[in-house]
Amino acid sequence: MTISFFIGGARSGKSKLAEMHTLKFGKQATYIATCEVFDEEMAHRVEKHQARRGKNWSTLLIPLNLAREIKNIEQSNPILVDCLTLWLSNHLLKKNDLEKKIDELTHVLRNSQSNIVLVSNEVGTGIVPDNALARDFRDSAGLMNQKIAAVSHQVYWVVAGIPTRIK
Questions:
Q1: Does residue 44 have an active-site annotation?
Q2: Which of 23, 57, 84, 164 minimizes the number of CB atoms within 10 Å of its CB?
Q3: Residues ≥6 apart with Cβ < 8 Å to 157
Q4: Would you say the pTM of this structure is higher than 0.85?
Q5: In this predicted structure, what is the pLDDT of residue 45?
C-alpha cells in the first residue's frame, strides 16, 4: 500500500500527472471526483476529465463522505482522489467540523490496504484573503495538506506540469 500526494497551484498539471501515476499501480483504477456540478462550466470540466481518462477508470462522485467510501472500495485497484480542496470546500460550505473530517480521512488513509493517489491545491502561497470565509478556507487547506503529506509515502510538488518529489 502506497499513498501518493500531488500538490500544486491551479492548472499546474497535477491531475494529469496523478492519473498517470495511479495507473502505475494497476491497469484499472477508481477515480473519486469530489466536485459538485452546479453549472454548465463545471459539467464541461468533468466531461473533459472523463474523456481524458478513458476506459481504464471507474468514476465515483463523492463530494462529502470520502473517508467512508475509501474504506469501502475494493482493495485490488488503485484509487485517485481529485481533489481534496474541493472536498474541503464542500464541507466548509456545509459548516461541518473540518478538523474532524480531515482527521477521519487521515485515519482511513493510514489504515488502508489500497494504493491511493490524492490531489490538492496549494493555496497558501498567495496574498492573505480579504474575507473571513476565504481565510478559513486557506487556513483549513493548509492544515489538511500538512496532515495528508504527513501520512503520505510520496509527495510531489507540481509546477508548470513538472513534478518534483519532495518526500
A1: no
A2: 164
A3: 7, 8, 122, 163, 164, 166
A4: yes
A5: 82
